[in-house]
Design a protein that fits this description.
- The protein is of the alpha/beta class and about 375 residues long.
- It has 2 domains: about 25-215; about 225-365, GMP Synthetase, Chain A, domain 3 (2-Layer Sandwich).
- Helix content is about 35%, strand content about 35%.
- It is built from 12 helices and 15 strands.
- The protein has helices at about 1-25, 75-85, 100-105, 110-115, 135-140, 150-160, 170-175, 215-225, 290-315, 325-330, 335-340, 340-345; strands at about 25-35, 45-55, 60-70, 90, 95-100, 125-130, 145, 145-150, 185-195, 195-205, 210-215, 235-240, 245-260, 265-280, 350-365.
- α8 (about 215-225) crosses α9.
- It is globular.
């Protein structure tokens, strides 16, 4: 009986391999979706960076990438128009990045991106970012310095996310996160740099629209920590007493404290406690007394606090409640929140950063 089944099983495996080979050749994996407006009208201009597996065979094949630009009245229409002229089956299941132009970002982009949740091959685990430049020009390049443009952009994002310096910004968070408190957010921002692009901080959104106001890279790292990012040995470089200092974040804890005054809010404290490890070339630093380290802690606290004040001022100027303080007030003081107009109150609200620094030890970069 077993001998009789053996040829049949081998035949089935061979047939499966042929079918897989055929299907792989047909699949066109959308790696990056770039979205802008076409001209001065409301029609979308969509760039697809598509990866396909040529010479597919059992166990592998030769990957290739093409860039295709199309237009449509909606995201679905743009995909349908692409299917009419590009041979193969588009698959968004492996899409890694949605990159939107600043012009598109100023027009409540989540309303249009919400359609992506209806695709059969749901790409909601893709990252979402802003490009402050010519999106078509960037995505039309197959490679930048021998690196595929999709790998370059994702490499920059994933590297800084891993180092804890920027937020993750997954599309899933914004599409399925609810509508009450996600209208104010911040997206990682790319700008042109040489032949390619570089990260340049955060683009701030208020009421779902890009404000045109940004945080730079240094402010972004601090804002990310103040927004509850886990301490992951982020490197912070600053100045104290006219010289530079370098520290590694070992742990970070963020807390909010709402201080009421009568029937209103007096102020909100954004408290950030950092456990740091000093990294210095001067080995004599290891011989400093506890009093010296206490002095260093105070100096670093003052430096980071002054930077945190600037971050909060920028957020309030843009009317971007990035820290979701309105959510905190609504959760813990619902009656008070129900009586106020948070959109009008937030820019005028007194928000006080409180930075606590604890130096654990000193040493070299591990």
């Amino acid at each position: 009986m077993r001998k009789a089944l053996a040829p049949l099983l081998i035949t089935c495996l061979l047939l499966t391999g042929c079918w897989d080979q055929h299907e792989l050749k047909k699949l066109l994996f959308v790696d990056i979706v770039g979205i802008d407006y076409a001209g001065d009208n409301r029609q979308l201009k969509v760039n697809f960076v598509i990866s396909s597996l040529r010479e597919a065979n059992q166990g592998g094949g030769r990957p290739s990438a093409i860039s295709y630009e199309t237009t449509g009245v909606s995201l679905f229409d743009a995909v349908a128009n692409t299917n009419k002229v590009v041979p193969g089956d588009l698959s968004a299941l492996e899409t890694r990045l949605y990159l939107i132009s600043t012009r598109f970002a100023k027009d409540k982009p989540l309303n249009i991106l919400n359609a992506s949740s209806q695709f059969l091959s749901n790409p909601l685990y893709a990252h979402l970012a802003v490009y402050d430049g010519d999106l078509s020009e960037l995505l039309s390049r197959s490679k930048i310095k021998d690196v595929p443009v999709s790998d370059l952009l994702m490499g920059l994002l994933e590297g800084e996310i891993k180092r804890g310096k920027i937020p993750s910004n997954k599309l899933l968070h914004y599409i399925l996160g609810g509508t009450n408190f996600i209208n104010d957010f911040a997206l990682n921002r790319f700008v042109p740099s040489g032949e390619g692009a570089r990260l340049a901080g955060l683009a701030l959104f208020s009421d779902g629209r890009y404000t045109g106001t940004n945080l730079n890279n240094e402010e972004t790292q601090l804002a990310n920590l103040m927004n509850g990012a886990q301490g992951k040995i982020q490197t912070i470089v600053g100045r104290m007493d006219g010289s530079h200092y370098s520290v590694l974040v070992q742990n970070a804890k963020r807390k909010f404290r709402i201080v009421r005054s009568g029937e209103g809010i007096n102020h909100i404290e954004v408290s950030l406690k950092l456990d740091l490890k000093i990294v210095e070339e001067d080995t004599e630093l290891n011989k400093h007394s506890k009093d010296v380290f206490k002095s260093l802690e105070k100096t670093i606290e003052e430096d980071l606090t002054s930077k945190a004040v600037e971050v909060i001022a920028t957020l309030q100027k843009a009317n971007c409640d990035y820290f979701q303080l309105g959510h905190e007030v609504a959760a813990y003081h619902p009656k008070l929140y129900g009586k106020m107009n948070w959109r009008e109150l937030y820019p005028k609200l007194r928000i006080k950063p409180v930075i606590h620094v604890n130096i654990l030890n000193s040493g070299i970069l591990e």
